[in-house]
Amino acid sequence: MRRRDASAVRRISDPELAQEAFREQLASPAGTEARRYLDKRGVSPEVSAQFGLGYAERSGRALLRLLEKHGFTAEQLENSGLLAGAKTAAFTTASATG
């Protein structure tokens, strides 16, 4: 059984890190449908920004890339217990291919 990296768990769990990734995703081409949905519901970009709305794409790779950008290693992510092995494997693959 692996020991959890408590420090990594605290830093990975920082909601500001995830929110940054989700806001970036909403603004990206991947967030087009989500932006259309918000517009259809009368949610302006200003309101979306005010409330920190974002979009999480299914694969979770955007969040993994952000965590990598903040210096987390695949081992820390796996040891944190916050990500499934498959997603960590995706992180490792994405890291290796740059």
Continuous helix count: 7
Low-confidence stretches: 85-98
Helix content: 55-70%
Run of helices and strands = HHHHHHH
Distance between the termini: 30 Å
Shape: elongated
What is the makeup of the main sheet?
Answer: none
Task: Describe the secondary-structure layout.
Blueprint: H1 6-12, H2 15-27, H3 32-40, H4 45-50, H5 61-69, H6 74-80, H7 85-97
Helix pairs in contact: 1-6, 2-5, 5-7, 6-7
Question: How is this structure best described in words?
Answer:
The chain has 7 helices and no strands. Helix 1 (6-12) packs across helix 6, helix 2 (15-27) crosses helix 5 (61-69) and helix 6 packs antiparallel against helix 7 (85-97). By secondary structure, it is mainly alpha-helical.
